[in-house]
Amino acid sequence: MNLIIDIGNTKIKTAVFEGNNLIDKNSFSKTDFFSIIENISKNYNIEHSILSSVGKLSEKELDLLQNLFDLIILDHTTKLPFINNYTTPKTLGVDRIALVAAAVNTFPNENVMIIDAGSCVTFDFVNNNKEYFGGAISPGIEMRYKAIHTFTANLPKLTISEEIPKIGNTTKNAIHLGVENGIIQEIEGVISQYKAKYSKLTIVLTGGDTIFLAKNIKSTIFANPNFLLEGLNSILKYNIEV
Questions:
Q1: What secondary structure does DSSP assign to 213-240, as a single string?
Q2: Is the pLDDT of residue 9 over 80?
């Protein structure tokens, strides 16, 4: 079995895979790190593990993982199942690397745009020859709401509204409409730009705001909240096999 550990900006996610099958998944804060990891080691026969971290682990936490598991720490030197043409590979986020790996594993020989809607919205493109060129990074929904409140004197701090107002007839509705319709139009615009160049284009949407955005984006997409975890598993399998 394979253990996937994804350390984000606010949460840690773990996943246990048997082959390509996801059989267990957890999401927790750093305060629960030791208990969750030790429970996984007791409950599953973990043979290999991979760590993807945009946050930081303490030496004690890293020592625990390396003592318990055969561990790969994902970085720009890790062997990847695609050609990385990013100009500054050392600065490329490991989360974006994992998403591209998931794309070439799930949709081989296809042009794929991966949209990860979390703290930031990232757009990443890999072509049908498994060549990755890069993409774009934009503020996520929560970040946009925070920015409107933080950088103005009187505008309130709001959270996502499940129903997008049709018109901003109050200040709150105007903010909701601006943030939510704005990000939807941005995503649709980026998709249209790529479709103008690549007539056959597969779109994958993932990340924390997947459900909300999937309901409101008109383009045909594959919504998969586990796409990053699947990508990390594919990188782990690739490194075991090569």
A1: HHHH--S--EE-TTHHHHHHHHHHHHHH
A2: no
CA distance 187 to 198: 16
Q: Is 113 exposed, middle or buried (0-12, 13-18, 19+ CB in 10 A)?
A: buried
Q: Which amino acid makes up residue 58?
A: S
Contact 105, 88 (CB under 8 A): no
Is residue 95 part of the annotated active site? The answer reads: yes
pTM of the model: 0.90
Continuous H helices in the chain:
33-43, 59-68, 94-106, 141-150, 171-176, 182-197, 210-216, 227-241
- Per-residue pLDDT tens over the stretch 33-65: 888 988 999 999 999 999 998 767 778 888 888
Q: Is 30 exposed, middle or buried (0-12, 13-18, 19+ CB in 10 A)?
A: middle
Given 24, 32, 75, 95, the catalytic residue? 95
Closest by CA to 121, choosing from 104, 102, 141, 101, is 141
Classify burial at 220, counting beta carbons within 10 Å of its beta carbon; exposed 0-12, middle 13-18, buried 19 or more: exposed
Tell me the per-residue pLDDT of 152-169, one tens digit each, with 9 for 90 and over: 999 999 999 888 999 999
Look at strands 21-28 and 12-18 and give their pairing: antiparallel
Tell me the helix, strand and coil percentages in the chain, rounded to 5: 40, 25, 35
How large is the average pLDDT for residues 78-89?
96
